[in-house]
Amino acid sequence: MTIDSVTDGVYRVGPGYVNSFIIDGDEGVVLVDTLLPKKEGIIANGLTGIGRSFDDVRAILITHSHADHSGSAAAVKSASHAGLYAAEADAAAIQGEIKPPSPPTPLYVKPLVFVMSFLPGPPPAEVDHFVSESSSDELPGDLRAVDTPGHTPGHTSYLLDRAGGVLFVGDAAKATKEGRVIRGYFNRSTPMIDNSLRHLAEFDFEIAAFGHSAPIESQASAAFRRFAQALR
Ligand SMILES: [Zn+2]
To answer: Which of 18, 75, 172, 203 has an alpha carbon 20 to 30 Å from 221's alpha carbon atom?
Structure first.
């Protein structure tokens, strides 16, 4: 388990292959994503490591319905009594009413997807607040939602107004070790992902925090703009 400081009061916790984020502030703690099922202990340890606990959590934001992001949402919710936020288009999968959408897969990953289809879905977690770019009012004041469909239909990124802007990208993109923005894997729709990345390139943010790679810690929006320009 790792706990890394991303910037002032923003921490990355996780088992290494996927990240969850803790945003510490004067009014309590906001979590972004919850790792795989039964990984709430990693988040609890992260909170303890910064002198906080589940009692301090006031909101749980989910980027999308895949089990490595919403897996421990039910457990974190019941430990913290905080509200769960996600886009309406991914809510049915988070609530266990349908399976998270699987992407159209190239042949070489088909066996993996086949195996995954037999694994139980994450424990269902009720979504309390639907978020979208046009209605972020229910989110804590320093956060806004950015619609980034493509990886899943309701994939949402979150922009925090701190340290020049911190974008929680989710799986809308990944970063290379050199800090280049690239498409992530298992996208449901590549054209939609590319549109979402063009959209993210319209915002200004210093830092980008990803679901599956290390953060870009400076001039992150420029890296998104370079990706978007290369698409033309
Ligand atoms: Zn995903």
So the answer is: 18
How far apart are the C-alpha atoms of 165 and 50, rounded to whole Å?
22
Length of the chain: 232
Instruction: Tell me, in angstroms, the distance from the centre of ligand 1 to residue 26's CA.
Output: 30
Distance 89 CA to ligand 1 centre (A): 14
Checking if the pLDDT of 18 tops 90, the result is yes
Helix (H, G, I), strand (E, B) or coil at 211: coil
Distance 182 CA to ligand 1 centre (A): 14
Tell how far the Cα of 186 is from the centroid of ligand 1, in angstroms: 7
CATH of domain 2-98+125-231: 3.60.15.10
Please check whether residue 43 is in contact with residue 19, taking contact to mean a CB–CB distance below 8 angstroms.
Answer: no
Q: Which residues pair with 207 in a beta bridge?
A: 166
Residue bearing tokens 């934001």: 61
d(CA 160, CA 101) in angstroms, rounded, equals 28
Beta bridge partners of 140: none
Q: Ligand 1 centre from 15 Cα, in Å?
A: 16
Is the pTM of the predicted complex or chain greater than 0.85?
A: yes
Q: How far is the CA of 68 from the centre of ligand 1 (A)?
A: 7
- pLDDT tens for 110-158 read 565 555 555 667 899 999 999 999 986 689 989 999 999 999 999 999 9
